[in-house]
Amino acid sequence: MKKPFLLLLPAVAALGLTTQCQSSKPAATAPVTTAPTAAEVPKAKEYKYTTVEGDPLKTRIYTLDNGLTVYLSDYDDAPRIQTYVAVRAGSKNDPHDATGLAHYLEHMVFKGTSRLGAQNFGAEKTELDKIEALYEQYRGTRDVAQRKKLYHQIDSVSGVAAKYAVANEYDKLMGAIGAKGSNAYTSVEQTVYQEDIPSNQVEKWAAVQAERFDELVPRLFHTELEAVYEEKNRGLDNDFSKEFEALNRSLFKKHEYGTQTTIGTIEHLQNPSITEIKRYFDKYYVPNNMAVAMSGDLDYDQTIRTIDQYFGKLKNKPVPAFTPAKEDPITAPIVQEVKGPQAENVMLGYRFPGTMTKDALVLRMIDKILTNGQAGLIDLNLNQKQLVLEAQSFADLNNDYSTHVLYGTPRQGQSLDQVKDLLLAQLDKVKKGDFPEWLIPAIINNEQLQRTRSYESNEARAGAFVGAFVAREDWKDYLEQFEDFGKITKDDVMRVANQYYGPGYALIYKRTGKDTSTPKVIKPAITPVPVNRDASSDYYKQVLALPSPELQPVFLDYKKDIQQTQLKPGLPLYYTHNDENNLFSLYYVLDLGTNNDPKLGLAADYLKYLGTGKYSAAQLQQEFYKLGCSFDVSSGQDRVFVSLSGLDKNMEPALELFEQLLNNPTPDAQALKDMTAGILKNRQDAKLNKGVILSQAMLNYVKYGPKNPFTNIVSEKELKALKPQELISRIKQLETYEHRVLYYGPRTTLKAETVKASDSLSLEIPEASFVNDVLQNFHKTPAKLTTTPPAKDFAELPLKDRKVYWTDFNMVQAEILFLSRGDAYDKALVPTVSLYNEYFGGNMGSIVFQELRESKALAYSASSRYANADKLGRSNYQLSYIGTQADKLPEAMAGMETLLNDMPMAEANLNIARQSIRNSIATERITKSDVLFAYERAKRLGLDYDLRRDVYEQTANMSLSDLKKFQEARVKGHPQTVLVIGSKDRLNFKELAKYGQVQQLTLKEIFGY
Q1: At what angle do helices 458-470 and 475-485 cross, to 10 degrees?
Q2: Which of 266, 783, 830, 875 minimizes the number of CB atoms within 10 Å of its CB?
Q3: Nearest Cα residue to 835 out of 861, 866, 862, 808
Q4: What is the pTM of this model?
Q5: What sign results for the dihedral spanned by CA atoms 10, 16, 19, 20?
Q6: Using CA atoms, how far apart are residues 485 and 671, in angstroms rounded to an integer?
């Protein structure tokens, strides 16, 4: 889930702050007269556009006659285009008596129109009108018996209406054209719809998007409402979400940022109004309040013609102005307490002006002064020194106000007030200007580096357009903010800090405990509705019949796409060339890991707290940050990755620093003692994280038994007895083992040769700086490298008995995994597995999603896949997931088991799945450093070629009988092991017993401590 913010400035949506649910360039087909719309193809129309000199994205901004803003950027890394359709209306525009409306509308826009998703709309509309009227009665009634009667009527009429509809037809259509990432999100300012489409499918995409934004048909309403209920329940189970809501309530007593939430209240969710949703759609979903943002392999002229052909028919109308409430000054801390089962932390929030102000720009600089991942005040003074378990800050930038949030997690025995005081002390340093002079220039350089990286992402490029549009910011001004950011001085920082970091702020204590205030969303009685999966609308057929140029897949040829040389025996160098920018990535890869030695992971963690003879640990981080480079060492179960990346011009000094650290780290006994204490506290906190409990602890226990990769850790006793030298020796040994070097960057190993580069780069590489020469100079290894020890893999359990394992956790929902062990990895099965997953449980148009969410409203999230092993010799697994309200657990489990044992057969769904796979592969291009890692994955599976070739060629002729044969042989009737996490006072153990012997797993059993 994400919220596109300013290009290369961090999005806070990753923390859960938005609600998300769901020519030589064949950028588009030429508009044709057979298009399924009333619009005629425009004649030789001239399209005016604006550009900005020096814009690295080469953006063209158009405004159609109806006011629609269109942003286009050509980037031909792959024949795909990232698209966003943004509506400048979000939850702050919700009526005060119908909160959550913008978000629920977002869900309904996926339901189709009078043509899309309709079989007999005339008959369906009669029933939909009845449903709308019944909901208005239901909303105005408080008598329990009468509400129950009305809901029964709604349920009954909904079943009739559904007979005339085609569920998920939008999702099917997007799948058929090879779209990826079909989804949307709602935030306070905006609602944004996203698709990643093949570049030859622009016309089909435009036709469907214009169709659904022209007309709202709220079909399948009551089952989708249940999905929103489940989304609400997920929020109730998320302590961070509750904490952030409390912070906004404190900061915004008058403004909708704090007086209402994007998901809405339970009261409003349980009393929805289709009429109000329609009014909102008619009011805000108009072209002069919308933007189309596209970045990818597109032809500007052709694309804008196609967009105008379809979107140009939308009718504009005046949009009501939003008048933000003016908040009163905060003169003292506003303290609130939130309780929940997860780990304790403290959160502070300060109110700032909106995103377009100069002070908000300075806020971004302050945020980087505090936390930039390497050399910020919080990074070094709190995290590096291990004074807290973890601390961070982030800026939430919105149109009317912004918020700066600081939060921290305590160490063992540390109070939340102590963490708060440490955070406030860092703000005091900012207010006094107590930070080094080089820090602001280094932040500016590193922001430029991050921007350069983001130019490689169509998602980031198009997301920047959305950010500018939502903020009502001219693209020229948007780009100039980077120049303005580079002019910020220490005096600016101190002025803004002293103005806004005063005595008034929001202070939220998140404590571990039972939240007695958590309400429960009541489960209504819902009769499953038909999904009509074999049906399709005439409109669906017409869109798919639109011609589009065929694109051919491009498969990797590892021998040609990766250059290889030997630095010395046992030390190969694999490299691919970066001809796009001046950034590099360098990796040392070792085939050993924590399965061989659990202390390897500790050594990797310890390294970041160490310095060298010349630099302390903090000074070392500062030096890397000055160079625009960063390093990492991480140990997985069977591989260690040692990495360095950043500005290629600084590769030599960065590599020299890094090699000094790897070969001569300075032991620090206090750092080890603090790290050990932190590890023990993290282990306690992991037991308070339901995601870790289910997906790591329980899953590993069931697959391998008590001794497994997850529990293969250093015991508390061993931890406390650890000496620095034990870990130092492991760090220094890394480069003595046989390993391989991966390099992606602008250098080459060829002698005295000019590398072909893009027009923006000048890459005359002097002989002394060829990558192999640099590595020979700085990557010092023994004359003879040590052979890595044999891999240690944990034996997989047979899983032949039906069993149910459950773990108690205080939560509103229940989460369930169905697990069965399959055969060992076999590359011959991969094409069939790919098609089966796409058909059965891979997306919103799949059988599982249709049945469990669309038809039966049993879950917000439901999926199933046959997961191929990632290593030769290991087993595949059938893994199915349901996240549902606890009182729906019996029906949800029965529904999933039925699907696993009796897979519905639908030719239409198979055709869509086949088209989706083939279109995706035909337009997928593995480039840049991904080429190197694709080769790494292939070698682990014993492959020397691109396996996508087999998938593409073989799925073309697969039939339903092929899928049925696979499903009956490898899924149907196989014993299922069921994993359940939920609150024991909400779980139905009588129902669980139907699936096998029920056994409770304690946290000590599954964590091993």
Answers
A1: 100
A2: 783
A3: 866
A4: 0.91
A5: positive
A6: 36
